[in-house]
Amino acid sequence: MKKLLTCIVIIFSLIGLIGTAFASKAQQNSLGISPSYITSEILRPGNTYTQEFVLSRSNPETDATAIVEVDAPAPLDSWITLNDGNEIAMPAGQQRVEFSISVNVPEDATITDYNGFIRVRLSNNEASNVQVALLPGVRIDVRLDLSNEIIKKLEILSASVPTFPINNTLNMVLKVDNQGNVPDAPQRAVLRVLSLQEEEVALLTTEAISDVPAFSQSEVNAIFSNHGLTESSYLAEVEIFYEDKIIYEDRLAFDVTEQSVVAETGEKIIQTVENAPLLAKVALAVGTILTLGSITTAFILFLKRRKQRKEKSYVV
Amino acid sequence: MQNNKHYLKTFVIGLLLTMLFLFTSYEQLSTVLAENSTTTVTVENDSPTFSVAPFEDPASDNTTPTNVGSAVTFRATGSDVNGDGYYLAICKTNAITANDGSAPTCTGGNWCVSSSTANGVQANCNYTVTTSEVNETYAWYAFVCDAVPAGASCSSADQGTGSSGSPYSVNHAPSFSAIVDDGGSGADSGDDPGGTIQFTATASDSDSAGTPDTVLLVVCADSNGATASGCSGTQLCSSALTATNPSCTYNLPAVRLDGNVNYWSYVFDSHNFASASNPRTGQYTVNNVAPVVSNVVINSASNITLTENTTTNVPVTATVTDNNSCQDLSSVTTGLYRSAVTFSNCDNNGEDDDNDCYAVVTCSVSGGSCTSSSDAAANYSCTVAMQYHSDPTDTDTQFTSDNWLATVLATDGSAAQGSLQSASGVEVLSLVALDVTSSINYGALSKGADTGATNQTTVVTATGNTGLDTEIGGTDMCTDYPTCAGGVITVDNQEYALSGFTFGAGSDLSTVATEVEINIAKTTSSVAPETGNVLWGIAIPGTAQAGTYTGQNTVTAVKGEVVEW
Questions:
Q1: Where is pLDDT greater, at B38 or B31?
Q2: Taking CB atoms and an 8 Å cutoff, what residues of chain B touch A116?
Q3: pLDDT score of B512
Q4: Pairs of CB atoms within 8 A across A/B
Q5: Residues A202, A162: contact at Cβ < 8 Å?
Q6: Bridging pattern class, strands B168-171 and B66-67
Q7: Touching check for B76 and chain A: CB below 8 Å?
Q8: What's the pLDDT band for B367 if we cut at 50, 70, 90?
Q9: Given an 8 Å threshold on Cβ–Cβ distance, is A121 in contact with B554?
């Protein structure tokens, strides 16, 4: 019995020594997530809400895998989709890894609050040389308040006018954050174009702005036709209206360049192939039919005459 | 008596016949006489005459006067019955004296006298008009005079006819006493690029015969010279003809380096005659204008996600336009700050705070922009290394009503500044992150023993930008972890607490993650991050097999309650 006890003591001592040795290496053992929530108070049945996440670790010396586990009650757990799977590779040398999670609210979902968690932890599949390995993890809080209300909320994140050739339309690129629960677009955009000396050159307005899907950010074009600008550099003051209020004001700079020859050729080709007017297409079809008909008729007449000549010869 | 009469008649008739004979045979007789006699008879020379009347070539009249310093050329052709050579003399008065063997002398002075010219050949002479000819017209009288050694005589005066006849006209140079440039606010005021500079000459012309003379101004950018038609080199502007003080306007290029610029100005009269004061030089001023900042965008207009326990490079981009050329910009910097801080509290390095203000971050020109001095605009990119503990502004944080803004400040070579704040702020998203001690070593224990009051301490460090709580969970410890087909020490044999405890008083570890209110404050300094301790103990069941047991516990970071940050 004494021998057995001695053995146990020795074994645990060895474990302790080994553990101490590894612990003394003072490895970094960290994990972060940003943001740490999936939150919405305006989700409607039938909506899909997607949240992008960044997992990070400051000292990625080795490959690692992050395990994503949903800890949410039914039916919320079934609404959650791990778009990148439940194992996220975190390669050595890469501090940041992106992934996304979507919440798909069924059409028949009950209007109430839904709460849960999603945990992300680093896994360690290798045999451990320590008594207890401590693994870092992060928690994502899921808080969804379903609503039947239509909520409209837009934010303009940026506006820019890329350089464009003189004969093209002026396309102002708007980065729009639709924080509402229905597709939506800014009401109108007003562009006060100034010379470099800040004298007004043109005052342009457009309502030709595409919708942005609910709960998403995307870039849309505000298209100004017939801008009348000449080849030059310009400053501009932009105002974006939404629900009759200015929601964004900015100062821009852009260039109008000479017409691109390549672009012109391209447009011509496009017009020839795809944008030919309907009348022209009909005319082409009729012309083709008539031509083929004429050739066929001529060929038949030729054959008939030849036959007649042969018959005459025979009679003679 | 009758015989006497007859003799007298005969004598007279004889005398007359003799005289007739002598007259008709003069040459032969004179030869005979010369040969045969010493008697001398002097026959006087004839004066030459104009076979072609005198004229100015070209005509010098009110329409085409001769500039001071230029020559009036007089031409005429003389003819002499004696075949003698002749001089063409252009006198100031109608009086001349022929000289034997030399050019004649105009009594009142001459404009010019030709050299001796053969009979019937056109003679000419020039007079270069000098500044002493202050009148606008001067009369002349032309004579042709013998170029003979003796008996020289002159024709009567001839003044020609029409525009090429007397008088000749003198064109005097316009006066040009000063040049002034005006950018719109008075002399030497200068103007901005794209503006105008008006040049005005103090100039006039006193010539008034016929149509009064007018003057024009030509202003050049270099010293290559000019005519009334324009500059030989680069022209800034030229005026129309005007009675006095001509002026012209130069449109400054839309993009122009600032500073004083030399110019050379010229005045000409309506006969294209340059002023003797040409050129007058001066300097106009291109004003310095402040740079204009536009298109300020933070992080491509996306919210900022930080990286745990380290910095994250966040781009701020902007376009800076300087009408004095983008090459006039001496520095472009940005400040990135939480909106409540404002730029005025984040515009110098002394205000740097890695929680809410990144001041005076240097920006650099993006490739491909600002390639020449005629470019006004340059794209700038600034990289802000944001610390992991920068204040979050998203939901459930301390500053939810704030966001992060950037102001880009551009300074040009004359210390003029322009700035612009980003039109739209971005959120710094909450980064929930921790660094935790990597292992627990309980040491060697006997079966049935526990760690008692001896705890193993693990340190949890807040390496994000939020206060932290934690969830703690674990697994069974096994001799063949993770298979766990051999010896097992179940998870509930481990205990933990946030302060020292004697085994039995701690919380049992569970496979289910359990939240622990560790309440680690938000880290505000990367040098001294906030930490919390979790203390551990273990009991070895009496039934445990001897062996080496290993397992895994998980410490999960949970965003702490904001009030605990």
A1: B38
A2: none
A3: 94
A4: 270
A5: no
A6: parallel
A7: no
A8: confident
A9: yes
Q: Which of B376, B439, B547 lies nearest to residue A132, judging by beta carbons? A: B439
% of chain B surpassing 70 pLDDT: 92
Is A196's CB within 8 Å of B254's CB?
A: yes
- The pLDDT score that the predictor gives to residue A266 is 37
Task: Please give the Cα distance from B317 to B296 (Å, whole number).
Answer: 6
Q: Would you call B562 an interface residue with chain A, using a CB distance cutoff of 8 Å?
A: no
ipTM rounded to 2 decimals: 0.75
- Residue B494 CA, distance from chain mean position: 79
Chain A nearest C-alpha distance from B273 (Å): 40
Q: What's the rounded Cα separation, in Å, for the pair B397 and B562?
A: 6
Confidence class of residue A123 from pLDDT cuts 50, 70 and 90?
confident
Q: Which of residues 415-434 of B touch A (CB under 8 A)?
A: 420, 423-424, 426, 429-434
Beta carbons of B77 and B48 less than 8 angstroms apart: no
**How far is Cα B172 from Cα B65, in angstroms, rounded to an integer?**
9
Torsion of CA A300, A304, A306, A307, to 10 degrees: 140
User: Residue length, chain B?
Assistant: 565
Q: Determine the 3-state secondary structure of B41 from DSSP.
A: coil
- Give the H/E segment covering residue B97: strand B96-99
Q: Taking the CA atoms of chain B, what radius of gyration do you get in angstroms?
A: 57
Mean model confidence pLDDT for chain B: 92
Mean pLDDT of B342-366: 96
A4 backbone dihedrals φ, ψ, rounded to 5°: -65, -45
Q: What pLDDT shows up at residue B416?
A: 97
Q: What is the mean pLDDT of residues B278-294?
A: 96
Tokens representing residue A84 in the block: 């990148």
Q: Do A253 and B464 touch (CB under 8 A)?
A: no
Are B557 and A32 in contact by the 8 Å Cβ rule? The answer is yes
The candidate with the shortest Cα–Cα distance to B251, out of B281, B216, B286, is B286
Stated pTM of the model = 0.79
Reported as a single tens digit per residue, the pLDDT across B122-164 is 999 999 999 999 999 999 999 999 999 999 999 999 999 999 9
Q: Which of A14, A28, A253 sits opposite B435 (nearest CB)?
A: A28
pLDDT category, A130, cuts 50, 70, 90? confident
- DSSP 3-state of B79: strand
DSSP string, A135-193: EEEEEEEEEEEE--S----EEEEEEE---EETTS-EEEEEEEEE-SSS-B--SEEEEEE
pLDDT-derived band at B30, boundaries 50, 70, 90: very low
Region B35-43: mean pLDDT is: 57
Encoding tokens for residue A146? 């379903």
Helix (H), strand (E), coil (C) string for B197-241: EEEEEEEECCCCCCCCCCEEEEEECCCCCEECCEECCCEEEECCC
B345: left (phi over 0), alpha (psi -120 to 50) or beta: alpha
CA distance B321 to chain A (A): 8
